[in-house]
Structures are given as structure tokens and as C-alpha cells.
């Protein structure tokens, strides 16, 4: 069930909101969990038993980790709990990839292809597994305590706003809120406003530029001229940002409506002056997860420069593979890892001597080139697109985008780079003034009407990160 579907917006959301708002405080977790289980079961009924069963194992292991009777076997318990979750992720997400590549190699060597029934990808598996691992590791480290009840742990795992595409939430950051919270009118107002902003980013910008991005990347086989290739890349650069950050906005807003505050996932990433800064601003919950649960355990920067560079590269290879079982994702991760290593070696020193806007422009173009690897379906397709960008393709321009697409491009570019010139903190203070509240609410109402109208008129477009 997508947040931008008519089923969610016109049926699920109003019913859930009414039930939650009218429930006494003691029943809110029950209402939230019931809605979350229904939300997941609606999209993937065949997987809900697996996720609930693995959550039960997590809960048992988590409680055993703080049980004095199991003190001598804590490492074994932690290893077992993590192994089960990693196994779920590996089988669900990478078994098909491994079998397909082994089968292709066997055919190349003159053998027979492997007969294999493809495994369906459980929705949200990447996000859910990372959250479940962080829960166990944080208990092991003493950062958090186990949930008091299995119901509370299920709510943490299945909390529907963030379950499918994040942000990746760590249990200790919302533990107190899951046990007890108050919900004010301001929470509903701020939360629903944030939800509307996310919906508008998805429907009015991301979905508007998506057709041209799809057409450009889909035309690589027939050839593509440079201008069309660059315009297509600009469209995808805007699409992936407004699609994914739009989902995060909607998730944050829905959680706020429950009285639960989760951390931000994006911070104007396209005004970054380096790849190092980009990963402090892009998909923050993933980059900090990899830092805390992979980079630091590998040794971080504590064992010399060579180990540091190797750790960075390993972390971003994992980041690439986390996004999907495809060689293009692996190359995308390797590309970002290489850029981060180069920055540590010398690029950051060079950037310090350059004007801020030059660094922003160069970093943005390099990030965009990385998006070619992320978007392409194969290494060959990525190579063809790079050739088109460089003007080495004989293709002809595809049809120019319609006015709606051009408008979305202009608005998307302005919203992406305006923070380089305007203080968002100062702007938010101005917008947040009580005297301007009616105008803000009126603007949000207008965005909601526009988004719903566009959503009804267009074909349904799922969120990009649902496939991860």
C-alpha cells in the first residue's frame, strides 16, 4: 500500500486517523500496531509470518542479552540473532542474483542453465533488517534496553510510516515514545502539513519528471544525443531526490501525528561541497547506520590510513549492494567509496582553496554521473548513457518535454539549490510565525488539492525505494 495511492489516501489514512485520535492513550499502541500489521499484510501477506517470527526471535534474544544467566553466551546470542537477520536479507534479496550469475557462467562454459524459481522480494526487507540488527547490537552495547513487551517490539518493527522505505529508526531513539506519549493538536497540524509537503514533492515534482527520465534511459539502445541525455539525467537527479525525500517527509509527518518524533533523513544534499558532505546530507539514516554498525566495528580510522581507505571502500560497496542485487549498484557504491578516498587523499585540500559555489557545482555534477550507474539496468546500458553524455552517440533528440515537465524541472532545481543562497533556518522561522499560520495552512491546502488532482489524473507511480 503506497502513501500516494487512492486506497491509502481516501480510505486507510482517514479511518486510521479517526481511530487513533479517538482512542484513549492506553490503547494507542494497539491501534497503531493493528494498522501497521494490516498495512504490511495488505502488500505482502505471504511474508508477514516470516517477519513476525523473526521479530519474535529478536525479542527473545534481546531479553537474553541482559539476562545474567546468559552472560557467558552473549556473543553467541548476538551472532545468532544477527545471522538470522542477515540470512533473511541475503536469501530474499541476493539469491536470485547469485543463481542468475552462476547460471550464466555455466552456460558460457558449455553447461546447462540452473532451473530456479525466482524468490519474491519482501517489501521493506532492507530497512526492516537493518533496524532489527541495530536493536540487538544496541542492547549488546548497553545503549538501549529490550522492549518490555513483544507488542512494543512488533510496533517498532512494523510501525507503518517508516516500515517500507525508512528512515531507518533505531529503537533507543523512540523507546520512551513507544511506551508513553501524548499527542497534541500541534502534533496533528505539523505532522499532516509535513505529510502534504512530502506528497506534493512526490506527485508534483518526482512523478512529473519521471516520464522524461524513463524515456531518456530507455532510449540508450537506439542512441541518444547529448542534450537529451543530460536533460534526462537532470530529470532523474530530481526524481530520485524528491521521490525519496518526499516519502521520508510523509513518514516523518505520519509519525508526528502519532506523537512519535523520528529523525530527519535529508538535509538539502544537492548543495554539498564534497562527497563527504553529501553523505552527511543524503539518506542520513543509512549513512549513519553504516558508520555506527559497519565502519566503526571494522576499525574506522583507528588503524592507519590504508585501513581507513579500505574500510571506506568496503562500507560503500555494502551500501551499493544494500540498494539492490545488480552490478550497477556495486559500481555505484565503489564510485562513491573511491571519491571519498580521493577526498581524504587530496581533494578536500583542493576544495578548500576553491569558491563555495564552484565546489557545489562540481560535486553536484559528479553525483549526477553516479546516478547513471544507479539508474541504468546494466553496465552496458550505463556505458551507453555515459557515451551519450559525452556526445559520442549518434542518437537523435527525443520529443521535448511538455510544459508540466519543464515547470517541474524549474521548481525542482530551484528548491534543490536555493538553500545555497537562502538560510532555511531563517526562512522556517519566518514561515513559523503565528501571524502567517493561516497563509501556510492555505498554501498546504492548495498543495493537497493539486497533488490529489494530479494523482487521480495520472497513472499510479510507486516510490522508487520500494524496490529496495
Features:
468 residues, mainly alpha, 19 helices, 71% helix, globular
Strand content: under 5%
Rg result: 23 Å
Helicity, as a percent range: over 70%
Low-confidence stretches: none
What class, by secondary structure content? Answer: mainly alpha
Along the chain, the helix and strand elements come as HHHHHHHHHHHHHHHHHHH
Mean pLDDT, to the nearest integer, reads 90
Major sheet description: none
Shape: globular
Number of strands: 0
Tell me the number of helical segments per DSSP (H or I, 4 or more residues long).
19
User: Termini, distance in Å?
Assistant: 15 Å
Concise synopsis of the structure shown:
The protein is an all-alpha fold. It is built from 19 helices and no strands.
Walk me through this protein's architecture:
The protein is globular. With 468 residues, it is mainly α. Helix content is 71%, strand content 0%.
Indicate the topology.
Elements: H1 6-22, H2 28-43, H3 48-65, H4 74-108, H5 125-141, H6 150-158, H7 160-163, H8 171-179, H9 185-218, H10 226-257, H11 275-281, H12 284-295, H13 305-323, H14 327-352, H15 356-375, H16 379-389, H17 403-417, H18 424-431, H19 437-457
Helix pairs in contact: 2-6, 3-4, 3-5, 3-6, 4-5, 9-10, 9-17, 9-19, 10-15, 10-16, 10-17, 12-13, 13-14, 14-15, 15-16
